[in-house]
Amino acid sequence: MNAPAQDASIRRRGPALDVAVVGGGMVGAAAALALARAGFSTALLEARAPAAWSAEAEVDLRVVGLAPSSLALLDELGVWTSIRDARSSPYTHMHVWDAQSGAAIDFDAASERHDRLGCIVENNLVQWTLWRALEAAGVRRLCPAEVKGFEARDDRVQLELADGATLAASLLVAADGAASPLRQLAGIGTRGRDYAQRAVVAHVSTERPHESTAWQRFLPGGPLALLPLADGRSSIVWSLSEADARRVLALDDQAFGDELGVASDFRLGRITASTPRAAFPLKLQLAERYQADRLVLLGDAAHTVHPLAGQGVNLGLRDVAELRDTLLDARHAGRDIGAAHVLRRYARRRRSADTLDALGFDALARIYAWQSPALVAARGVGTSLLDRLAPLKRRIGEHAAGL
Ligand SMILES: Cc1cc2nc3c(=O)[nH]c(=O)nc-3n(C[C@H](O)[C@H](O)[C@H](O)COP(=O)(O)OP(=O)(O)OC[C@H]3O[C@@H](n4cnc5c(N)ncnc54)[C@H](O)[C@@H]3O)c2cc1C
User: Fold this and answer.
1) pLDDT tens-digit profile of 111-126?
2) Mean pLDDT for the stretch of residues 175-184
3) Mean pLDDT throughout 28-48?
């Protein structure tokens, strides 16, 4: 790993690099790899090195459901096979049901002529695998490195690091997470709303097998998902009000399992064991712009969405593919990859796609929070109808898959 002070080439004047990616989470690391593989000289700056993943260690508490579009991108980048073989859990079925009306909707890979709907993988495994692939792809990794400021000039963007080092690139890619210091430095505001909820996560053992199915029950307080893990356990994402999340976090394992069993309607039987729990605040946040002078936003720096659709990182990886294609087209046309008119294409396409998705997930969160008996009944009818409308259901499935 290169420390900033050791990488003399990075200190030279002028835009030594095509792209500087800030943030080495799943999205930033994938962006750096995709751009390097496309032939752009790329550096990745990350404040904290990811923990090494090990098959012997407990399954990371943070897992994500990767859609087929994300699996295809990771495959193209040459990392999917090692992630899949290390530890992953394909799911072939999704069952979503409404606690109040009892209506349900099912998605099935076989009936859509796919071998899976997606794969559950550990965040740490994805990040670590990408991180290791960066070196072989010729990406300059600077870690620990924290960007303190930047200045866009006519032909480059000049970055200033916390240790006083500087670095220049044609384009700055901000993948520095939901709080994105770079977005703030660029003066880009955000819109959205705080759900005043926390997602409680844990891995649980259940009496009955998960049947390679992603289960999601919409409760009046928020959705509860049980995602299938490779070792037979399920990973839960339980969205609760702040007060309920605090209460549930403080329960002992037995009481937690009992309450979770009731919340899941004992669909997988009793909860027989649980790992320690953690909780994450939930908010809808969309950057007002995805672009500033010689800068683009991607991943959670650009958008955070409710986890009910399990799409946050999938949207981020679609940002990556669009950015790579945009920059490749610009290079083939002999254009400056940091020019405003080049970045506009990426920003326009991804912001409108992400906005539609984010608002769609937000609408679902609102609809499933309805409590009045008339609205609950209408929701039940709508859910059952949708389950029977095969063409519409297929369209929804294809959209979620990123096809
Ligand atoms: C409970 C929960 C469940 C979820 N489930 C799913 C799911 O099933 N499917 C799905 O697609 N998504 C899911 N998501 C969303 C997904 O986890 C996020 O969208 C994704 O992790 C965002 O990745 P990122 O790389 O954009 O940001 P981050 O992971 O936040 O990475 C940002 C990186 O930038 C670094 N950084 C920040 N500032 C600086 C700086 N100044 N200089 C250098 N480095 C810096 C940070 O150290 C960090 O490593 C879920 C989210 C939650 C909370």
Assistant:
1) 777 889 999 999 999 9
2) 98
3) 97
Give, for ligand 1, the residue of 91, 300, 306, 314 to mutate: max count of ligand atoms closer than 8 Å to Cβ: 300
Domains of the chain: 4-52+60-109+122-195+280-366 (3.50.50.60)
Separation CA 24–CA 29 (nearest Å): 5
Given this model, what pLDDT does residue 29 score?
98
Selection from 196, 199, 273 nearest residue 236 by Cα: 199
Locate tokens 């991108």: which residue?
73
* Whole-number Cα distances in Å, 115 to 32, 68, 118: 29, 10, 9
C-alpha–C-alpha distance, residues 97 and 94, integer Å:
10
Does ligand 1 have an atom closer than 6 angstroms to the CB of 33? no
Q: What is the mean pLDDT of residues 146-174?
A: 95
| Contact (Cβ atoms closer than 8 angstroms) between residue 182 and residue 295 | yes
- Candidates 141, 121, 114, 117; CA nearest to 67 is 117
The pLDDT value recorded for residue 5 is 36
Q: Is the pTM of this model over 0.85?
A: yes
d(CA 403, CA 381): 28
Arithmetic mean of pLDDT, 46-63:
95
Match 């090195």 to its residue by tokens.
49
Is residue 313 within 8 Å of 26, Cβ to Cβ? yes
